[in-house]
Design a protein that fits this description.
The chain is of the alpha/beta class. The chain has 8 helices and 13 strands. It has 3 domains: about 70 residues, OB fold (Dihydrolipoamide Acetyltransferase, E2P), CATH 2.40.50; about 160 residues, P-loop containing nucleotide triphosphate hydrolases (Rossmann fold, 3-Layer(aba) Sandwich); about 70 residues, Orthogonal Bundle (Ribonucleotide Reductase Protein R1, domain 1).
Length: about 325
């Protein structure tokens, strides 16, 4: 190696770069940079930061590139959105799923996998994270009246975008293309067997992800996606695929829940008492709406459940912080 080449290599090693996290594997990272995936680790100061400040798939990061080894991530750029959920319903731990997604496709198949309540949970979490929720009802060919479910899901939140598609029949896919415009990022979430990987392959026009079979006994599938991964399309759009989840908890999502249930929030403002619990209080506009049929009792019950779950998680989180602080002082 001549002296000029040696100087260029040293300059490249110290020159700061910006790339995007394409995968995370137990503390090791891949950074998408100029069409390549570079192995990386975080700088030591990250170990003094809270978990939510660590890089997740979709994050843009500043890093020092190492042509012959592992690059070092120096900092995470400001996020436009951040998708998270409770890692366990019994603890305050959180699972950080993806960052900088413009849209989140909430994928539910129109078989036994369909759940109105689960879709509402996802919508609240996505709205709280700052992304736009888009519900994709897959396997429409297995349903005799998919439009009925489209109408039902649209009732979850004002302006919620809902599409029924069938990869087998090739229907409904054209309506999804505007979301995959150059520079846009879509995150896929949903249960195992809902058809995330199949949909991703259909949108890409090639097999990017392996797909699994569905058990006929319970319509549940295998976890064909084992980790979060960012895939770039030829037009410059990106998709983040995530492992399937049987259930999704709600935490730190009170604003998202309120947005999804804006109709109930608007009714609550009309109650006689500002602290009305919508139970036995007189002059309750929410109860009156249920009695008149304007608001379904099931929707009110779901709102109460999600709001309570989010508040309880915040309490657990605060208790967990206090316990950790006490341990540090001992």
């Amino acid at each position: 190696m001549n002296k000029n080449t040696d100087k260029e290599l040293k300059k490249e090693q110290t020159e700061p770069c910006t790339g995007r996290i394409s995968a995370v594997h137990k503390g090791s990272f891949l950074i998408r940079f100029r069409g390549e995936d570079l192995a990386a680790k975080v700088k030591g100061n990250f170990y003094e930061m809270p978990p939510e400040d660590w890089p997740v798939v979709g994050d843009y990061v500043n890093f020092d590139r190492s042509p012959s080894g592992t690059s070092v991530i120096r900092s995470v750029c400001e996020r436009t959105s951040f998708l998270q959920r409770p890692d366990s319903a019994k603890t305050a731990a959180m699972q950080y799923m993806a960052a900088n997604a413009d849209y989140v496709f909430i994928i539910t198949s129109l078989n036994d996998n369909y759940s109105y309540n689960r879709i509402a949970r996802y919508a609240g979490v996505v709205l709280a994270g700052g992304s736009v929720p888009v519900v994709i009802l897959t396997k429409a060919d297995l349903c005799t009246d998919p439009e009925r479910y489209v109408r039902e899901v649209r009732g979850i939140a004002d302006g919620l975008r809902v599409h029924a598609v069938s990869v087998v029949q090739g229907t409904g896919l054209e309506a999804l293309k505007p979301y995959l415009a150059p520079g846009k990022t879509v995150c896929l979430v949903g249960s195992s067997g809902a058809g995330k990987s199949t949909l991703l392959n259909a949108l890409a026009g090639e097999e990017l992800m392996k797909t699994g079979e569905i058990r006929a006994s319970d319509a549940k599938g295998r976890h064909t996606t084992t980790h979060r991964q960012l895939t770039e399309f030829a037009n410059g759009a990106s998709i983040i695929d995530t492992p399937g989840m049987r259930e999704i908890g709600v935490a730190a999502a009170e604003d998202g829940v309120d947005t999804a249930f804006a109709d109930i929030i608007a009714l609550a403002r009309q109650c006689r008492f500002s602290n009305c619990r919508h139970e036995t209080e007189p002059g309750c506009a929410v109860k009156a709406a249920v009695e008149s049929g304007e608001l379904s009792a099931e929707r009110l019950k779901l709102y109460r459940s999600l709001s309570s779950e989010s508040r309880n998680h915040e309490k657990k989180k605060e208790i967990s912080k206090r316990v950790k602080a006490m341990k540090r002082t001992k």
